[in-house]
Specification:
mainly alpha; MetI-like fold
Length: about 290
């Protein structure tokens, strides 16, 4: 009697648990389906002619895959130039931002100061500042420095934009490392800089990969700061360039060229995340739990 009651109680306890998981599986499945459907639709539309896109149902398959739409977007619509600007700005800003984050996180996590928690709290406060609040002072600062409408100005903005999250993750990861590393290095005569560069930095692989990928994706997809700070077509990134193409008379109704440009924007993001998503998960999990 007791055994059957115990089994019934366990089944009753598991039932809500299973329903809870089923709800989230359905929710995640619907989100994944809608995302993949949008990606497939844009790819299919980019393979049609403009007349075919306008004159056929939205989900009808392309009669012929027209890869020339991508060549037209790359060469004639300046998507190739926009792509080059995005690569240059995103990669440079990512490298600079991650380097600054690592140097800022090391003393907070490994060198005992009374103000360490205060400094970390100030970085975390940066995560709570809405981006709408920052663009006016940033605009005025870049104007004073003569860096408006330049790749350099945009790189500096992007590099600092990701600092709060990067520092938070790296501080959490560094706290998981044993302090005996610094003690052994000090016995060998190594100072803080040498200890960081030669001992701590090589151990930060997962965390550095994580913040690098997230920073790159944020920089690659960012639109608003580029819209405010960049005006010359030769400096435009992909999101801004495609937006301007959509507003132009030449390409505002040339939908298939715009869709081809969108695919050029999406594919590098998918490749980077598909290859390195394990590093993102590992680095964020370790850093967030310890931090």
């Amino acid at each position: 009697m007791t055994t059957s009651s115990t089994r019934r109680t366990k089944r009753e306890a598991r039932a809500p648990f299973r329903r809870y998981h089923l709800f989230f599986y359905l929710l995640l499945g619907s989100i994944a389906f809608s995302t993949i459907s949008a990606f497939v639709w844009v790819f299919n539309a980019s393979m049609k002619s403009n007349r075919e896109f306008i004159g056929t149902p939205p989900w009808s398959a392309a009669d012929t895959w027209r890869w020339e739409n991508y060549a037209n977007a790359w060469n004639n619509a300046n998507v190739g130039a926009f792509f080059g600007n995005s690569i240059l700005v995103s990669v440079t800003a990512t490298v600079l931002g991650v380097a600054l984050s690592a140097f800022a996180a090391y003393p907070i996590a490994r060198i005992p100061f009374r103000v360490n928690n205060l400094v970390l709290s100030l970085f975390l406060a940066g995560l709570m500042v809405p981006w709408m609040v920052t663009f006016i002072p940033l605009y005025l600062t870049l104007q004073e420095l003569g860096l408006l409408d330049s790749r350099t100005g945009l790189i500096l903005v992007y590099a600092t934009y990701n600092l709060p999250l990067n520092v938070f993750v790296l501080v959490g990861f560094m706290k998981t490392l044993p302090y005996e590393l610094e003690e052994a290095a000090a016995v060998d005569g190594a100072g803080p800089t040498r200890t960081f560069v030669q001992i701590i930095l090589p151990l930060l692989g997962p965390a550095l990969a994580s913040v690098s990928i997230i920073s790159f994706l944020n920089n690659w997809n960012e639109f608003f700061y580029a819209l405010v700070f960049i005006h010359s077509p030769e400096y435009m990134t992909l999101p801004l360039g495609l937006f301007q193409l959509g507003q132009s008379a030449d390409y505002g109704t040339n939908w298939v060229t715009l869709f081809a440009g969108m695919m050029v924007t999406v594919v590098p993001v998918l490749i980077v995340f598909a290859l390195l998503q394990d590093h993102v998960t590992k680095g964020l999990t370790t850093g967030a739990l310890k931090g």
